[in-house]
User: What shape does this take?
Amino acid sequence: MKVTQLIADTKDTVISFEVLPPTKGKSIESLYEHLNPLMEFNPAFINVTYHRAEQVFKKRVDGTFERVEIRKRPGTVGICAALMNKYKVEAIPHLICGGFSKEETENALIDLDFLGIKNVLALRGDAAANEKFFNPHPHGHRYAEDLVKQIVGLNNGVYMEDDIMDGAKTDFCIGIAGYPEKHFEAPNAETDINYLKRKIDLGAHYVTTQLFYDNRHYYNYLNKCAEFGINVPIIPGIKPLTNKKQLTTIPRVFNVEIPMDLYNAMMKAKTEADCEQVGTEWLLHQCKDLLKNNAKVLHFYTLGKPRVIYNVLKQLF
Ligand code: FAD
Assistant: This one.
């Protein structure tokens, strides 16, 4: 079922998860072990991230180095099919612009359509590990809005080859990313929301947000988006913070703030278990507040300690 339909149909708040493909060399069982306990809460859908290839230097036997491309977490599409088959749940693959030509994207969309996948999250992706700024593939898309246009085109039966007349129409529900604390490259929140609006005007159907630890950022974002005439669902994305190291890694990686109260509580925690307890209580408090404010979906980023999410959900539902 499409995410928008699901949200329109549900009276209660539904749960969803984001998972990462296992690192290359690990079996899919590791992902099932991660997800199995969480499936008790009947997620409405599970997002599967996409990870572009990275360029790394490998030493040759003669001591010189060669640059090779490796994809550390392959398998997004296969995992979506496996999750749908195993758990009978909607699986949502993330699609990124980075590293893809338009033709490769079109072929990926055809694969997804043939697999019966009804939802995709259309993203630009970040800069490659060896680059400072995002550089599009020479035959690819620069912004997520260009990817949205391509998916909308395919939904209308428009393929890259001009000679395909009367092409089969796909029917993807298109999600996009939103940033309650602004995307780090955007000059200001208004510009960022303007670009969000453009993606929606082009045909995106809903928004999933970057994680946040202060719900006020999310509520302000909802208000600002409404002022800009955005009226599609905006799904809050939340992630537990469970150790002291994350007090600096999370702001660096996701460009979000850690509220002072959370920071202080985490700094006071003495043991690993204490840290987990702080993270659990904070997430529980965030979720209760979101439920009180009628969030239709709670979308959990499950990388790290799914046990914390499990404990929170157990107390909520
Ligand atoms: P865009 O919408 O293209 O925006 C990028 C920047 O450009 C923003 O600052 C925006 O304001 C600006 N902008 C947008 N359009 C224009 C325009 N036409 N002209 C000028 N400026 C413009 N990354 C991955 O690699 N894999 C994943 O699986 C993944 N999943 C994610 C899931 C969620 C829910 C979120 C929030 C992020 C995810 N990301 C993922 C990270 C995401 O790819 C990065 O944050 C990326 O830097 C921006 O992606 P975007 O789709 O928001 O880009």
Q: What stands out?
A: The chain has eleven helices and ten strands. Residues 157 and 282 are 46 Å apart (CA to CA). The chain has a mean pLDDT of 96. Strands lie at 14-19, 45-48, 54-59, 65-70, 90-96, 119-123, 173-178, 206-211, 234-238, 297-301.
